[in-house]
Amino acid sequence: MSTVLFVIYALAASGGALAVVLSQNVVRMAFWLVISLSSVAGLFFLLGADFVGATQLLIYVGGTVVLLIFGVMLTSSGPYGTIKSQPAEVVQAGIIGMAFLALVASTVLSVNWEANEVRLAHANDHAEHGHVHEVSEPESEQGYNPEESGNTTRSLGTALLGVRFDKDLSLESEDGSNHGHTHGNHEVSAGYLLPFEIVSVHLLVVLVGAAYLARAKRRVDVENA
Amino acid sequence: MENVGLEMFLAVSAVLFVCGVVCMATKRNAIGVLMGVELVLNGANLNLVAFSRYGSLGLDGQVMSLFVIVLAAAEAAAALAIVLAFYNNHMTVDVDQATDLQG
To answer: Which residue ranges traverse the bilayer (chain B) (predicted)?
Structure first.
């Protein structure tokens, strides 16, 4: 079932992206962009990232694409106005794009990711614990953070507030002690409170700057108009 | 989901990334260039979430993809304001006409 869903979403995402490249009308490009982004949100849901998928639907499809369509409406010179590229340029871009896709895809598919994950886990374990520590499975975080089954909203929220329950609680439960603070040798994992604040200030600055840039000020040009 | 591996998601995100790069390079409409940027950021997002699911990245990949989504929205707003200012001055959104700074 999920394989069928993956095939559908993957084909829709790739086909939508290809149609964005191939279509010449800007409104049709926006439509295919909606298809592609929604399919990527479906892929996020398949990957168990429910909050990221919902955010993708809300912000990208509901916000950014609507913003782009407003931009199309405010800047189009006619009802069917398209700015065409030259056919030779399209052919060149197609050839270069196929070559680039072959390069990227062959590079990505030729890496053995599982072996790299195992080696990375061993290297991290040797770097953090100098003494010999039983390497259990790094994916065996039971209980609090079932990433495979979704339900990531609370973990994401606490991570953005700087508290990593998804990492710290599972560490203590591996030791079998309920209150790990009495040892004092557990380092608390790093959260994302400072990047969260930086991003919020960045959003405020960008919105003020965009409102300043796009304010209604039309320069009256006598020789052009 | 057992027979859909990490490589399939990476292949899909590679397709998205390459389509976005080609869209950025070939479109002469400035809004089309912005759509290409969105496609590229989506390919990167799909990579991050796929590694968060299959790798040992845990929840960090999803947090990173949330930041990418927010920054993409901010980037679209700022770039659209710039495009509108350019349209107010030149009455076109053709990026080939944006040659005022050429010496």
So the answer is: 6-24, 31-51, 63-87
